[in-house]
Specification:
Largest sheet: 7 strands, mixed
Radius of gyration: 22 Å
Number of strands: 18
Strand content: 15-25%
Strand order of the largest sheet: 7-6-3-2-1-17-18
Structural class: alpha/beta
Order of helices and strands: HHEHEHEEHEHEHEEEEEEEEEHHEEEH
Number of helices: 10
Length: 402
């Protein structure tokens, strides 16, 4: 019995060691290595409004744990209606705690975007924001007019009273810092900064962007769960490099940019060099964590950007059969959605190993799919009756990548 026990124990040790050898490294603190960053990006999924409680929060968490997700994108944000932000934070913290109880390694990403509205004037500026920018503390709210381009550029770009912010304006930097710190305080460890290159017309050398990001990173070093916040943005130029090779962001991101298959209605493919797609173009340099690369790792997503009003037509440009990317995807058959995710994952890994597909998990639909205005990857159930059933496909793709 003793010999048998020793043999069994030895076999158990071999299995344990094998499992440990195959386990991906998700450990970081203060800075992140390329290997660990890529491990996270390889398990990234868009989870729009996850921390806002959209859908069934418990089933969303169950789905994330089931598939092995490690990076939940766009989980907390406001698009305009800025005065909602302070009210959203208690629920966001509650859901983040639940997630990190299940998986302490999971990164939750927030978003701060290329929009500011008159609604921001309902938010009081805390004393700690004035102190950060070495300004006298006063009792006032954010000033919309002080955040937009003085020359009128981008005014009312999104709608009346909703404009593109100008990062060269101090008030804009104060708002971005306030929002970033607020997100970090509830457990956020990554922030997507939207279309950075339309907020920099008066900041061509990105001095003001770098100032704001430095302040956010310093706050994260003292207050974030693992003393760092991973910053990214959509970069049609391929990235922003300054001071002889320093990269402004920790990773890059961009829409997929899907091309129509003209002789196969509704079908789409990926293609090197199509429109402004980032494949093969992510710039390299010295990262904020200190390591050098020829091409910064990036993720590509099924983006949402509205309705063209010409759905089901090949109208070109960034539309795919007249849809934005996630609406196009949601309007395909379940079989094609599953097949296409496998295709896109393999295509990206084969054509540019610096890139990773950010899986679709939760996202709004500008063009409804069978009456549904929100895409959930969850397996359809009583908990999520409107699930689109990509959960097991995503899990299988990732398991095949172990």
């Amino acid at each position: 019995m003793q010999v048998v026990s020793c043999v069994l124990w030895g076999a158990m040790l071999i299995n344990i060691n094998a499992a440990s050898a195959n386990k991906r490294d998700y450990q970081f603190d203060g800075k992140i290595s390329r290997e660990v960053l890529e491990n996270y990006l390889s398990r990234s999924i868009t989870m729009m409004d996850l921390l806002s409680g959209v859908g069934n929060p418990d089933d969303n968490i169950r789905m994330l744990i089931n598939i092995g997700a490690k990076y939940a994108g766009r989980s907390l944000y406001v698009w305009g209606t800025e005065s909602r932000l302070p009210k959203m934070l208690p629920l966001a913290r509650e859901i983040a705690v639940k997630i990190h109880e299940k998986d302490p390694e999971m990164i939750l990403q927030a978003g701060i975007y290329e929009i500011v509205t008159k609604d921001i004037e309902r938010i009081p500026i805390p004393a700690w924001v004035f102190l950060e920018f070495e300004m006298p503390v006063e009792e006032r709210n954010f000033n919309y007019q002080a955040m937009i381009y003085p020359d009128g550029h981008g005014h009312n770009h999104w709608s009346k009273g909703a404009s593109i912010p100008d990062m060269s304006q101090l008030e804009t930097r104060m708002w971005f810092y306030y929002a970033s710190a607020s997100y970090i305080n509830v457990g956020i460890e990554a922030i997507h900064f939207g279309q950075v290159e339309i907020m920099d017309n008066n900041d061509q050398d990105h001095k003001h962007w770098r100032d704001m990001l430095a302040r956010v990173r310093k706050y994260a070093s003292e207050n974030a769960r693992r003393h760092i916040v991973l910053c990214d943005a959509h970069v049609p130029s391929g990235g922003i490099v300054y001071d002889d090779g320093k990269l402004m962001f920790d990773l890059h991101s961009f829409p997929l940019r899907i091309e129509e298959v003209e002789d196969s209605p509704h079908h789409g493919i990926l293609k090197m060099g199509y429109l402004d797609s980032i494949f093969g173009r992510s710039k390299g340099g010295i990262t904020p964590s200190g390591w050098n690369c020829d091409h910064l790792p990036y993720m590509v997503e099924l983006d949402n950007f509205g309705s063209s009003g010409k759905e089901d037509q090949n109208i070109g440009a960034h539309w795919i059969w007249g849809y934005d990317e996630i609406s196009w995807f949601a309007n395909q058959s379940e079989e094609y959605r599953n097949k296409w995710l496998k295709y896109a994952w393999n295509w990206i890994r084969e054509h540019d190993p610096n890139g990773f597909l950010e899986m679709p998990g939760s996202r709004c639909l500008a063009s409804p799919a069978n009456g549904r205005r929100w895409y959930f990857a969850n397996t359809a159930s009583d908990a999520t009756p409107d699930g689109f059933n990509q959960e097991e496909t995503i899990k299988a793709i990732w398991m095949s990548d172990e």
